[in-house]
Write a structure and sequence with these properties.
Gyrase A, domain 2, four-stranded antiparallel sheet, four-stranded parallel sheet, 24 helices, 10% strand, globular, RNA-binding
Length: 611
RNA sequence: GCCCCCGUAGCUCAGCUGGAUAGAGCAGCGGAUUUCUAAUCCGCCGGUCGCAGGUUCGAAUCCUGCCGGGGGUACCA
């Protein structure tokens, strides 16, 4: 049968058909062709087109008539098995099963699972992670890092040029605090032994000291909460830290030298975590990188009339009763708005990106509005700017965002350790259960075991984060995320392992199914459903990318796992009735495994061959 | 005060460019299964989609108001 491979993007494929059918009926068919979705009930076919209803009024006809007309205009070929008009005018489309089978064979070739790279690749700069390097990473940094990394992977896989940039907080007050702390509170012995830890200690100590002063600056009425002498000392320390920061910014040799000394210490710790998380950046250009450009940015913005003097500071105004954005304080200091604008200029000049994504906490929404608005007025209006905002990670006890700066809340490292330990504990428990049942347990070397626990533990944390809609807050629960049940990384990793087990047990070389894919038979409903689900992979990736929502990938994988599970229950693979059926099912298994593996990879989650 | 976001099953959350009876997971209840295995499967129970209006063939989804929660709101980032 000579089915050609069109595009593995089912939605695009169908929309193209619909657009053809609609041409001549309406002036602009695209919005109507877009009214297409996967049917939520198999009774309604595979996909449903919903345009007839809304088109009816414009054409002055009844919806079923319009639907009939559209169906008559659909290209006549072998794509559909059935096209039905139902209800108030839905057009239900069902693919020919033979066509699905042919696609299976086609996408098995090559390593892209049928997904073709973007025809018009775009350039993306993705600004993510951006930790404050003076303090240890904590749960709050998790989301930006994980979501940003996943978006990099997804866009890159779809053929775009991606620059992942870690915009470090390496130049602000936090370093003034370290400088002050180093000069007045350091413990030389501790510094010799473990400089990273000693710096962290000093930082936490100063954070505490400064808090009253900051509280009172926020809200003068808070003054009554503190004893006057404690408050006075706090204010003095804060002033001293600011002084150190200013000196650093002014190029004071001693402070600059210390800064250069502190940086590698601080970075070593952060990089260890990135390595463990398997997160890489193309650039790590922190705030310090832009420092020398800030004066010029302010000058240029003033010269162009975008910024002006206001209440003693240099500010960009956004209309009456709107808060302004300060780009230079009345003391002469630059702000993060200034740095972000300098960063935009740098990025545009260096990469000329089509889009710049900021994977940052939702609380900074107003700041980014200011920055985008200012950047456009400044002339940098060609890139699209997106604040890929996300909600907070909530402490299950307090139901409030995790706080670390003041208290002893978990650092990210502790959290990851806990997750990995939990994975190890689960492993022992499950092995025990299996031993009691008399099952064979794979002999894994200690090294292999460690890899497995790491992949499972870290994967669990990542997946739990990514499978949430990023905009909503979520309650952090180690129990839930490392569970074997439900939509978790462990479940998906195990689905993969179990699938690989079939090939081992059947002594089958999966490589053969990729170079010489056998014909596929989809006689059973579960086989057909699995094939259809496999073909939806590209739709899932596209939907994840257009809204910057990796949870569309996890949702897809979960559906795939369920389709596979149904198939697995009803369709024996190694014991299939005929050799041809066995071959066909092995191909479906292999495609499933590869899709799971690729999907997880695009989320930054590792698969393992055995668990 | 002003601006933004959120309010969906007992719990945790999807769904929100309007579409057919509102979906998962966990918890609860009832069956099937002892395996191609670190995941059993199927069914049931459970919802005035915060409240009230409006738009229309059709609203969890769009608009307005209200209630409740969170966040932001000029010299921190």
């Amino acid at each position: 049968m000579g089915y050609s491979v069109h595009s593995m993007n089912l939605i695009t494929l169908l929309q193209d058909r619909l657009r053809l059918a609609l041409t001549g009926l309406v002036d602009d068919p695209s919005p109507y062709a877009a009214m297409l979705k996967a049917a939520n009930d198999p009774k309604h076919g595979d996909y449903q087109a919903n345009c007839a209803m809304s088109l009816a009024k414009a054409l002055g006809k009844k919806p079923p008539e319009v639907a009939k007309e559209i169906v008559a205009r659909l290209p006549q070929d072998d794509l559909f098995e059935k096209v039905e008009i139902a209800g108030p005018g839905f057009i239900n489309l069902r693919f020919r099963t033979e066509w699905l089978a042919a696609q299976m064979q086609a996408i098995a070739l090559g390593d892209r699972l049928g997904i073709t790279p973007a025809v018009k690749p775009k350039t993306y700069v993705i600004d993510f992670s951006g930790p404050n390097v003076a303090k240890p990473l904590h749960v709050g940094h998790l989301r930006s890092t994980i979501i940003g990394d996943s978006l990099c992977r997804l866009l890159r896989f779809l053929g775009h040029k991606v620059i992942g940039d870690n915009h470090l907080g390496d130049w602000g007050l936090q370093f003034g605090m370290l400088l002050h702390g180093y000069k007045h509170h350091r413990d030389d012995a501790a510094l010799q032994g473990d400089p990273v830890r000693e710096l962290a200690r000093v930082y936490v100590m100063l954070r505490k000291k400064i808090k009253p002063a900051e509280d009172v600056e926020d809200e003068p009425a808070n003054a009554k909460n503190y004893p006057p002498d404690e408050l006075a000392e706090s204010q003095a320390v804060l002033a001293a830290c600011r002084q150190e920061t200013s000196k650093l910014h002014a190029g004071d040799p001693e402070n600059l030298k210390l800064w250069k000394q502190f940086m590698p210490w601080a970075m070593a710790e952060i990089e260890a975590i990135y390595k463990r998380l398997d997160v890489k950046f193309d650039e790590t250009l922190g705030e310090s990188h832009y420092h020398s450009m800030l004066a010029d940015v302010v000058r240029d913005l003033r010269a162009k009339g975008i910024a002006q003097e206001s209440r003693g500071a240099i500010a960009i105004l956004f209309g009456e009763n709107q808060p302004a954005a300060i780009i230079q304080s009345s003391h002469g200091a630059y702000t993060y708005t200034t740095t972000d604008l300098a960063t935009i200029r740098y990025r545009v000049e260096r990469w000329n990106p089509d889009e710049i994504l900021y994977v940052v906490d939702f609380r900074q929404a107003l700041h980014f509005q200011h920055v985008y608005d200012a950047a456009r007025r400044w002339g940098y209006d060609q890139p699209k700017y997106h604040h890929v905002s996300f909600g907070s990670v909530l402490d299950p006890k307090s139901r409030k965002p995790f706080k670390t700066s003041e208290g002893g809340a978990a650092t990210l490292e502790e959290l990851l350790n806990e997750a990995v330990q939990h994975a190890a504990k689960m492993y022992v428990q499950i092995c025990e259960e299996r031993r009691q049942r008399g099952d064979e347990i794979p002999e894994l070397s200690p090294g292999e075991l460690k890899q497995v626990h790491e992949a499972v533990g870290i994967g669990a944390v990542k997946y739990a984060d990514l499978c949430q809609n990023r905009e909503s807050d979520y309650v952090f629960s180690l129990e839930k995320m490392t569970s074997l049940e439900g939509n978790t990384a462990t479940y998906m990793q195990n689905a993969y392992v179990r699938n690989r087990g079939i090939f081992r047990k059947g002594d089958e070389n999966s490589e053969l199914y990729r170079t010489h894919p056998p014909p596929v038979l989809l006689g059973q409903p579960k086989e057909r459903a699995l094939a259809l689900q496999l073909l939806r992979f590209e739709d899932a990736l596209q939907s994840a990318v257009v809204d910057y929502r990796p949870n569309n990938v996890t949702a897809y994988l979960w559906d795939l796992a369920k389709s596979y599970s149904g198939f697995y229950e009803e369709c024996p693979v190694l014991k299939a009735e005929t050799p041809a059926l066995r071959q066909s099912r092995l191909l479906l298994c292999d495609l499933t495994a590869r899709t799971i593996q690729k999907g997880l990879e695009l989320l930054g989650i590792r698969t393992i061959e055995r668990m």
